[in-house]
Amino acid sequence: MRPDDEEVEPGLYSVAAPVRDFRGEVAAAVQVVGPRVRLAPRTAELAATALRWARRLENALRGTSDQPR
Q1: Strand order of the sheet with strand 12-20?
Q2: Which residues of 8-46 are buried (b: 16+ CB within 10 A; e: fewer)?
Q3: Pseudo-torsion of CA 29, 33, 40, 38, nearest 10°?
Q4: Are 16 and 30 in contact (CB under 8 A)?
Q5: Taking CA 16 as the corner, what is the angle to CA 9 and CA 62, rounded to the nearest 5 degrees?
Q6: In the chain, N or C: fewer CB atoms in 10 Å?
Q7: Chunked mean pLDDT (size 10), the chain, 69 residues
């Protein structure tokens, strides 16, 4: 995972994590998008949160436990 640092629009920043289905294929993504000035300093925190929610969605797709980690 890597951030999108003003690649699409000046001043825009995003962090995303893939959501994989039961076959292991990417079915969706969890993305946080906002102003670079606010999000860039929090990249590690946002990445961890996006990954945590992506795993929860993967568990739901697979019908497995949804316990927080």
Answers
A1: 4-5, 12-20, 26-35
A2: eeeeebbbbbebbeeeeeeeeebebeeebeebeeebeeb
A3: -150
A4: yes
A5: 150
A6: C
A7: 64 92 92 93 95 94 67
